[in-house]
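Appendix B. Raw example, untouched.
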Amino acid sequence: MRVPILARTPKIVRKAAIASLCGLLLSGAAVTTFAGTPTPTPANPAPAGSSPPAARFYGAVTAQGQTAADGTNVTATSSSGATCGSVNVGDPPASDGNYVLDDSGSDPTCSAPGSSLSFSVGGESANTSAAATVPDANGAIHIDLTAP
């Protein structure tokens, strides 16, 4: 009996692959396939001198005990009060009560590894499912948000 490849792939590897794909889609890249090998093709090349976000946060959003409605604003703020990123629930590549937010604020407290971030949902302070800190290396971090 043949077992599909995804069934044999560890869950963490599948999550990493999905997070990477989300990163490609969020950056505006298209994926072209030639001879079975996917090649990312930027739709809009990044401006000279630009850098990738310090981190990408993603997860489910709950407000008032229910899945947050698409269009609800999610904002990440640094310990100095600087806005590090803002997005609406359901904005692509996220959907159905989820968010994907790039930490791309220009304030140094938005990008310094180990810096703490706080999140708000619809203007209300949100609890996080894990510590919201800027990682040592760029990457996608799963953090679910819950607002009162």
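End of appendix B.
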